[in-house]
């Protein structure tokens, strides 16, 4: 994967060769794929737990403080 320095070198090389718009587009595509990959893998690796709903005792909120 390209780090910060690698991306800056890629932009510099593209600018030196006169391909700056193409280089920015290539870098944009790379970052979009990287973002999608990281998002997908992190969502799929997150553990799924069941949430139990506990019943409330009586009334809550402002009514409970009046007693």
From TrEMBL:
Residue ranges crossing the lipid bilayer per the database entry: 9-37
Organism name: Thermobifida fusca TM51
Record keyword Transmembrane present: yes
Q: Which UniProt keywords apply?
A: Membrane, Transmembrane, Transmembrane helix
Going by the entry's taxonomy, the superkingdom of the source organism is recorded as Bacteria
Q: What is this protein called?
A: Uncharacterized protein
